[in-house]
Amino acid sequence: MKIQFNKPYKTGKELLYIEDAIERGKISGNGHYTQECHSFFEKRYGFRKCLLTTSCTDALEMAAILLDITPGDEVIMPAYTFVSTANAFVLRGATIVFCDSRSDHPNMNEELIEGLITAKTKAIVAVHYAGMACKMDAIMEIADRHGLFVVEDAAQAVDSYFVDSEGQKHPLGGIGHLGAFSFHETKNIICGEGGMLVVNDERFEKRSEIIWEKGTNRTAFFRGEVDKYGWVDIGSSFLMSELNAAFLLAQLENLDEILQKRRHIWETYDDFFASEFTAFLRPNVPDWATNNGHMYYLVCESLEKRTLALDALKSVGVGAVFHYQNLSSSKMGGGFNQAQLDQAERYTNCLFRLPLFPELDAEKVFLKLKNGLLIEKTGSCKLENNDNSRTGKPID
Amino acid sequence: MKIQFNKPYKTGKELLYIEDAIERGKISGNGHYTQECHSFFEKRYGFRKCLLTTSCTDALEMAAILLDITPGDEVIMPAYTFVSTANAFVLRGATIVFCDSRSDHPNMNEELIEGLITAKTKAIVAVHYAGMACKMDAIMEIADRHGLFVVEDAAQAVDSYFVDSEGQKHPLGGIGHLGAFSFHETKNIICGEGGMLVVNDERFEKRSEIIWEKGTNRTAFFRGEVDKYGWVDIGSSFLMSELNAAFLLAQLENLDEILQKRRHIWETYDDFFASEFTAFLRPNVPDWATNNGHMYYLVCESLEKRTLALDALKSVGVGAVFHYQNLSSSKMGGGFNQAQLDQAERYTNCLFRLPLFPELDAEKVFLKLKNGLLIEKTGSCKLENNDNSRTGKPID
User: Fold this and answer.
1) What pTM was computed for the model?
2) Residue B330's closest chain A neighbor by CA?
3) Which of A163, A168, A293, B58 pairs with B11 at a CA distance of 20 to 30 A?
């Protein structure tokens, strides 16, 4: 029996809430369930303003519109990320300036950012890979000093935190001027396709509602602030359907339980790879980060070894996958004329992800992993155990 | 008891299909239900290629990207339309050239189009108001002669047709180079928030899949046409969640019944206003159009009279609404420096819509309408019956 890479988790209340949304006679956007989801995030994390969107991509597009990105503006972001991080800004005409990853973590290397800033730089996009915080104090300080905006691509980072030097925890998505979350079915908290924009800077609050509502002042109209509404700005149909918002609320009500289950599997994986199969570099949880159990990934020594590992796992029915093609060497990204980004290239070639979802049967998967990796070790792979005792020790 | 303006219709299978989508372990986009919906449209209407999107707005945005709209390009469209018709093209930098409506129908006056064409014109967007066809033979002929693209904004036009001079019926959305549909909860066939792009011109077929999949060649990859996929174009997260696609399929399976119910209510309204309350201009169904029962609207003689009518209907609990602010006189539209568009202004000020949904209790609504309009007639309204015997007779 195959162990799939991902299985969308159902708490049990999703269908009831969807049925209720239908009974309420409102399945388009911004109804009861949307409001409940907004409140959940605003209360739990102290986010200033939340707006559910049809995807994290769309939340990033809203951010690019809010920042008034125009052709020629430069936006700094990691090369090792999902295409939408870049496309959202390219759609507004931005020139993307790719930043390399850290050697001990796929997150962007904050020490390289300042060297990429020019007079044309408008924003930095910090992507919290695997839900683990970029070094946000350093990034915010650089942005502040150069008058830049910071957008957090917190697609994978629900309920994860940056821990500052005094031990204070700051929820990811709530630190930059704007933040974007994903509720795609592969994430911790899901609703099929969906996302959310977080507005942390007061200056963007009013306009964010207008852009969300197709460039109209409809929301202000329904609050009685204007006497008729019309076309006042650019914008799109960013609202999430109540069907998806209802699904999402059921998930949010079980957020602690879902994350606890995921973290348990993550830790079991990590123990296993620390003790039994030490040929891979395990994930590093930086001192300033928390772990929301979003993703368990391993880093091989080379593309060849990753291919062997993935083939071996496939042969025993474990749905392991690799992801993210270094955007700076893609057809589109190449147009931005970047330097070689060694770490981004390394994670592109060497990283792979293991199945991780709340219902995963850990015993079954470890048995299969053992079999798969034994094939690899005794067969053509020739991976040797290395001293990988310290979590996150960089290869180079 | 109030009669609401709209009530989302449920065929009864929506929740079962949503539950099945969840059981299939796929609630993001492009799964079983998405494919079934695509097939439905491709088979029933002969559309070349269909792609479900998160909204009709997003389908129009895909069209603007596919047409390579760049700053300076001019796009001709009606001023009397939803903001998204314009915003989708403005987001790509287009200059909008607004066309006035016909005097006998809110659709754009095709006789005015040619006078608006310049060397910069790239496309004409034909919006089929109330699901009734624009004069597509004339529009296609003009576009052909000037080498322009035609996008059909068929948001309201599911299962509606253009009838050519030989009596042949052509499904709306399938005539222009590209077409866009809406499945917003106010439409005939719904899924909360949702839409669909129709690609009728072979030249756009391959790229449409790439733009749909966030600018990646992921779809070609899964068909085995390329050996890895990456970032090859601009694009966005246009895919509709399977939750919404499942809802949509349940609706599509009942399309004939839903439309028959809506048409029946439409015709009952029309008989009522032809015989009992003739102070309003009733909808005109042009010779070249069919009626999909999407919308029953009336046109008053003036803004003042419409305000009185809406107030009167409100007082008896009938949820009648007006809509569409002439885009050319909006804050955003004004930036495009348009001539006065008298008919667009007239429909903006004088048109209103009556409740129309499959479960509407016609007897109840007519009793209320009578009471409401009697208040209006005997009270402050002073509307006089006019000779409105010919459907769609223009006021001027």
Assistant:
1) 0.94
2) A231
3) B58
